[in-house]
Amino acid sequence: MTVLNVIKHRFSVRKYKPKPVRTKDLYAILEAARFAQSSNNLQDWRFIIVRNENTRKNLVEATKGKNFVGEAPVVIVCCGINTNHKMTCGQHSYVIDVAIAMENMALVAWERGLGTCWLGAFYEDRVKELLNISGEDTRVVGILTLGYSALSAKLSGKIQKLNLNPKKNRLPLDTIVKYETW
Amino acid sequence: MTVLNVIKHRFSVRKYKPKPVRTKDLYAILEAARFAQSSNNLQDWRFIIVRNENTRKNLVEATKGKNFVGEAPVVIVCCGINTNHKMTCGQHSYVIDVAIAMENMALVAWERGLGTCWLGAFYEDRVKELLNISGEDTRVVGILTLGYSALSAKLSGKIQKLNLNPKKNRLPLDTIVKYETW
Known about the structure:
The structure is a homodimer. By secondary structure, chain A is of the alpha+beta class. Chain A has helices spanning 3-9, 23-34, 53-62, 67-71, 93-111, 124-130, 153-164, 166-169, 173-176; strands at residues 45-50, 74-80, 115-119, 139-147, 177-179. Chain A has one domain: NADH Oxidase (3-Layer(aba) Sandwich), CATH 3.40.109. The longest helix of chain A is centred in the middle third of the chain and has 19 residues, at 93-111.
């Protein structure tokens, strides 16, 4: 499958089978994060792999009641470090660098038959408390649930179709692309 | 090539051939951005494709003197809109969403034999002025140069080797990954 096809077919998985993620798949996914580019090669990311059931269940409340966070066999809590560093453009490098690494993981997961859901809706303080992330200088940028989709092939097909129909789900290119000037 | 191999082999290209980018390649790259996931499917990204030589040359100064910005046949200026929107975790969605779309573009470009360099070192005000990006609500998150690498195969191989040697260029997994807790 080409990278573009992985991108086109991927959708957010919010219902997981209890089936564990194979070590070699998790390894490949983490390598995808590790090899990501970052601002000045700062590698200002850290990832906490949560598989413990109690911790995952506790994360449900911290993610505003998302039960699938408790059901997914793996939850990857993606953190930024050196969070004071800004690029000349004014953006904090850690936010963008962690996002790059997370997207790499989401794509490699999909290619290996695994689903993810990228969460930004969580109470950061609560997540930090649950996982003993101390220090103002560390931020939780996103949470990635990881596992096998529990959706039937039929329903998966429907969702993919919906995602692939630009009129339904994505703006057309001429809305999002401009030429030469704004 | 697997997605993981694209990620592992990709490196930032800072020297370009004048050879133009084929329309079908640019189209595939933009589709990679368009199909990216975003917070609440906001699609809070806009992309300006700059091919005009004068504009590219003007962008050199705005990117702190990076001559390759003037040499790359295509420069994609990646903007965020609705920039007041924050996710529950406290991060602005536009920064992360634009980063996801940019990474998708960088990976699809590489798979199609094209190099990119992701720039965060630019004077945003100057870029906005040059491209008539008005409004405080629009931010330039990153700039992606795009084109064929002018490096010899031998030098490209060396760079790839360097990138692939974790001891040289990337922290080991056990530094960036933690299990169950920080």
